[in-house]
């Protein structure tokens, strides 16, 4: 709220959502944009609208953040009202003390002193009760704010997660690969990308139904997650296609990871739990590419996809790249493992 006041921005839910996300540190890309604007002299209302549209543009997410922000505004309003009431009580108490002091200065009688003391004691008890109520109000508001922070964190995680598989979604992939490329540009470390696609996935849906197809997607997602480490990120790119970002990894390392993923997936067999019926095996085709200096994320994705298409053309269930790794183009077939 202090930040919004300093920037002369209205304390509306959208502005609060952008500011909260910045100061909570939950969105580095948003924070980078804000820091850049601040360095340029400040943030206008129009720029806050653009920031909100860019980073909270999804309808469901936007509505959820707006709802949470409105609740926070309500809590803050209650606290401000409680503080205002307490201030009014304190002013009234001060006036009573001033009146009592004036009576003493005028050499009052014993009866006057007794009445004044009784009044002061009554006002003191009221102040004690008001302070106690104020403490309870602050405690309740603090608890509500903590709960809302947890809700916003959960909502942010949900907005980054594919609901079916539990891994990162395409939106989170897009923001993550930009951030990781920027980090690698600073550190000078390599970064590679794998694009993977389940072979003949449509046949699983056509032959066994979408429930089996969904199970295959979850199984592949779990296997991909088990084959990566550390800062590596696995995402469902769309449909039956997946992406794996491999920071601090060159092309040869990426191909080794891809082959491990391919072999892990190919070793699994699908069966119906109730009947034990075999549903066959799952295979994965993968393409790999290493990021080049000053290359846009879209170009890196395109080159990894070209490797994926090459793997599909050459028979599927293999890893491929269209990058030159030696005297010829590199393809890793199942037999190479």
Molecular structure report:
A hairpin with a 4-residue loop joins β7 (319-324) and β8. α2 (13-24) crosses α5 and α8 runs antiparallel to α9 (210-226). The chain is an alpha+beta fold and 337 residues long. Helices cover 64% and strands 13% of the residues. The strands form two sheets. A six-stranded mixed β-sheet has the order 2-3-1-6-7-8, with helices on both faces. The model has no long low-confidence stretch (mean pLDDT 81). It folds into three domains: 2-57, no CATH class; 61-160; 170-336, Alpha-Beta Plaits (2-Layer Sandwich), CATH 3.30.70.
Kindly report the CATH topology of the largest domain: Alpha-Beta Plaits
Helix content: 55-70%
**Into which percentage range does the β-strand content fall?**
5-15%
Shape: elongated
Residue runs with pLDDT of under 50 for 5 or more positions: none
CATH architecture classification name of the largest domain: 2-Layer Sandwich
CATH class designation of the largest domain: Alpha Beta
Q: What's the SSE pattern?
A: HHHHHHHEHHEEHEEEHEE
How large, in whole angstroms, is the Cα Rg?
31 Å
Give the biggest beta sheet.
Answer: 6 strands, mixed
Strand tally is 8
Quick structural gist:
This protein has 337 residues and is an alpha+beta fold. The protein has helices at 2-6, 13-24, 28-39, 45-55, 59-105, 110-160, 170-187, 201-208, 210-226, 251-266, 297-313; strands at 191-198, 233-238, 241-247, 269-271, 278-281, 284-290, 319-324, 329-332.
